Amino acid sequence: MAGLTDLTIAEARDKLTAGEVSARELTEAHIAAVEAARPLNAFITETPERALAQAEASDARRRSGEAGVMEGVPVGIKDLFCTKGVLTTAGSHILDGFVPPYESTVTANLWKAGAVMLGKCNMDEFAMGSSNETSYYGPVENPWRRPGDNRSIVPGGSSGGSVAAVAARIALGATGTDTGGSIRQPASFAGVVGLKPTYGRCSRFGAVAFASSLDQPGPITRTVRDAAIMLRGMAGFDPMDSTSVDTPVPDYEAALTGDISGLKVGIPKEYRMDGMPAEIEALWKQGIEWLKAAGAEIRDISLPHTKYALPTYYIVAPAEASSNLARYDGVRYGLRIPGNDLTEMYENTRAEGFGTEVQRRVMIGTYVLSAGYYDAYYLKAQKLRTLIARDFETAFEEIDVLLTPTAPSAAFGVGEKSDDPIAMYLNDVFTVPASMAGLPGISVPAGLADDGLPLGLQLIGRAFDEETVLRVAGVLEEAAVFDRRPENWWATK
Predict the structure, then answer these.
(1) What backbone torsions phi and psi does residue 299 show, to the nearest 5 degrees?
(2) Positions marked active-site
(3) Domain boundaries 2-256, CATH class
C-alpha cells in the first residue's frame, strides 16, 4: 500500500479511471500514512470515517459513469476552511469546540469534484506566521532534515501542516491560503508546489478571515500538473463572496503544453537584495538559464516600489486582522473565559484565546487605524499598495511572466527565529508584492541549499492568467528535475 501514497494526483486519477485501484483502497493507504506520520503534527483533526464514506461514494459514482476532476483523491484541508460538522479551529484556542453548521465554498467545490477529506491540517494561528510555530496545537515539523542533523525544521507558514502532509506523502494534495506568501513560502521550504491564484479566483466564503483584501485559497501539491488539476476543482464564481470574480474556470491542465517559445520572462532587479545568500542567487540564475534554453526571452525589468511592499503589507494586513478578529469575543461561539462583567469577560477571553503573534498583529492593526494615525500609516499604505500594483501593470505591458526566488533562505530550525518578529516577517519579502497586487504566483521546487534543504523558484503572472503561470512552471519543473524527497524519519518515532 506504500506505493499508493507515492502517486501524484494525475497518476492516481489514471489508476482510478483504469480500475487498477479503488478510491477506498487509495484512501485506506493514506489514512494509515496519516496515522504513522503523527510525529509531524501535520493534522489537528483526522477524519478517517468521513474519508472512507466519501471514498465509497466516489467508487459508486465512478461505477455509474460519473467522475469529477478530483474523483477519489484524498486531500488535507487547512484548518481555517469551515467544514460542516467537523471541528474548525484556525489553529487558535479561541475557536475551541467550534463545529461549523455550514461548508466553505472551496471545500464544497472539492467534494463536488469527488475529493476525499483526510482531515484538517495544522497551521499558524489565524494564518499569522511564517513557520507554523504559532499554532495553539503545537508546531508542525517539516518532513525534511539537514543531512546528519536530527534537529527539527520548520515547514514554513502559515500553511505548514498542508505542505508537510503533501511532502511526507500522507496526502495527495492539500488546500492552503496565501495572504502574504503562506502557500508559496512553505511550499519552497518543503520541496512541493504551491499555487496562489489571482485574488477572486477561489471563493473566500467559509474561510476564517485574516486580511480580507489579501486572503486567497489555493492548492498545494507535489507537481505542477497536480496543481492545475486541483485548482480546477477548487475555483469558481461564488455569489456568497462579494470579491469573487465571475469568470470561467479554464482547463488548467490543458495549458501544460511544454512550449514557452517566445514568451517574455521578466527579471525584476529589485529582488536582488543586499545580503541575498549566494545559493539563492545561483538558483535564480539557473532558473533563468533553464527558461532561456526552453525558448523564452529574458528581460530585465524594474518594479521600483518593491522595497515598500513588506512594510506596506505589515500595515494593511494587521489593520484588517484587527477588524476581522473583533468578532471573537466569547459571546457567540468558541472559547469563553468568565469575568465579573461583560468587559472583563471580553478581556479574559481574548487574552487567553489569542496567542502572542495574533495579539501583536491585532495591536499593530488597531494602532494604525486609530485616530491621529490613520492618515499617517494606513492611508499612506493604501496609496503605496496602488503604486505597487501599478508597477506590475507596467511590467506586464512588455512581459508575460516574472521569475524570482520564492524565499530568501531555506527552512530554518524550530525556535531559531521565533523570538525575532522582524526576521520572521522577512521570510515573505519575495512573496508579498504579488499578494499586494492580487496576482497569481507559484513556487516550484528547483534545487537544494548547501545544507541539503529544498529551495523554490517563484513565477508571477497577470491577473487571471494562471494558465501561462502554470505553463511556464511546468517547463521549469521539467528542467529542474527535482526528484528528492524527505527521509521517512517519523516512522521510527
Answers:
(1) -130, 135
(2) 78, 158, 182
(3) alpha beta
